[in-house]
Amino acid sequence: MLTRARDDVGWPALVLLLLLALAPLAVTGVSEQGILVVAMIYAVGAVGLDVLTGYSGQFSFGQFVYFAIGAYVMAAVRIHAHWPWVPAIIAGVVAAALVAAVIGSLFVRLRFFGSAVGTFFLGAVAVDLISGARLSHWTGGSNGLAVLPVTIGANSLSEGDWLYYTVWIALAVSVALCLRYTKVRAGMAARVVKENEVVAAVLGVRVFREKVRAQALAGAVAGLGGCMLALDVGYLSPDTFGISQSIELFAIVAVGGTGSIVGPVLGAVFFFSLVNGFASTSASASQLLFSLVVLAVVVLFNRGLYDLVEQAVRKLFALRRAPAATGAPEGPKTARAGDAPVAPDEQPVPAATAEDRPRQAPAGPPLLVLESIGVDFGGVRALGGVDLSVARGEVHAVIGPNGAGKTTLLNCISGIQPATGRVVLDGDDVTALPVSVRRGRGISRTFQHPSLVADLTARQNVEVGAYATHNGSALLEMAGLPGTRRRDRVARERAVAALELLDFPASRWGVHAGELTMGEQKHIDIARALANEPKLLLLDEPTAGLGEEEIDAVAGAIEGVRRAGVTVVVIAHHVGFVRRIADRCTVLDFGRVLTSGTAGDVLSDDQVVDVFVGAGGKS
Ligand SMILES: Nc1ncnc2c1ncn2[C@@H]1O[C@H](COP(=O)(O)OP(=O)(O)OP(=O)(O)O)[C@@H](O)[C@H]1O
Q1: Looking at ligand 1, which residue's alpha carbon is closest to its atom 4?
Q2: N or C of the chain: less Cβ packing under 10 Å?
């Protein structure tokens, strides 16, 4: 399923920040401005939390721990080391980022429930540490810590609008950093991680590293929020950084809209306006009303306030984009996911058939050799000693009934699934190599479900697959240094080359993947795997869920791949498709090779066709 994380929020972010910059002209009351300051402080942390949840798919109920680290480190280095306030803020931010990276690395392997429990108790431990005697020299223990007053020139930060605009700058910096992160390689890779970790790993993304990076960024931004909170309240106590604040932060992101960066800012302003609005009612009534409104927003507008505002603005200015299907690619009619697969006897007439192709495998050593590959899942023998040889440059179809072991075989070749036996690529034994190294050696693959990032364009999705490696510093990428820009340019060129090779219409390159038809998504999935210029391309049911014209288009794309000299192993369920694209064919049944040979010979065998499509399915 394609999940949403916005990629088009630069202008809305600018407009919202401008409105907040101008707000003191309209909101002149001291307490109202105070509410806006607190809202912006929470917004700083909330955009970081949004990077964590909305863009990298992680979860945290403990972000206020990093607020606390930022605030206490800033206050402590000013008191004990006499640092000026700006370097002290930087120290607070760096400390929060480092601790977030370390703690985050412990949490990244946890699923939702584990993360929820883990981060919740992290908050409890932090409050205990802050208020306890061990760190009291730095934190003031349960007595708290006074924050030294800040002066800017002759002015105190607490006078006039100085504090307001200091917090505004912190918010603008946080929004800019987080938006920038979502646009660079590291951010795009994290978005694939959120979509599907296995797919990300196969694309060479260091899943663990990208998750920790997102944790560190969210921690840094929360640390900045903590520094602002310290400047605002002027006094730090353990109660300032409790678990309830972390949960409020989470509510702000949910109310504003995850995966939008702007949404959490909107959510924070809404949240604290609501708090202010109910302040005059009795405490219990205000708590109830407040909770009911937040609940209503979350339940009724499950994509959050930002989505609601965006839709209203689009309607107002009639800027709504054209419906997704109207821009479908020129040429073949497209079908959507869920369309019934084409029955064998409805297959389009093949452009060229297996019988037309050479009956002998090309000379020279094979590119891929599998020796006695075996996989057991508990009591289920998925593969029982499969031998296979794939010649360089051929398209080799693996066919067989459901549960025959086809996908497991591709998983063994790509390194996702450990197996007994040997996998030899281009003469090298790669059996013991992990997925990322096999990718580096030239093995790419697609999956039955494309797992594209919905709010990245078709071309951006392909670019994620085009990086030779996903190493490198996200900070340098965000700074846009020449080395990283060169690397991005190469990835872009490779992505364009892959799209052109597959004849994917240029008019659709800029369309968000969530708006592509299923056939187009399959093309983008193939292009993404091809963009790394592999020797061996593994395609897992590229025609699943497609209509006949889309199957025809995928067949055309695979023929393009063959012409480019890439060897292909493809799982397929359609006789006509296999006839058209395959040079050779291996039939699996119950995890064993039933037969293997030229596609023409294999598909003329009645027993094979019976196993493949059921008796009478031969066409
Ligand atoms: N992770 C797993 N845990 C347990 N059993 C599994 C796992 N993956 C696959 N299997 C089992 O292994 C066997 C082979 O599955 P596999 O998905 O490789 O078959 P397939 O030929 O690709 O089927 P299909 O055409 O339906 O995708 C099946 O019996 C399946 O239930």
Answers
A1: 377
A2: N
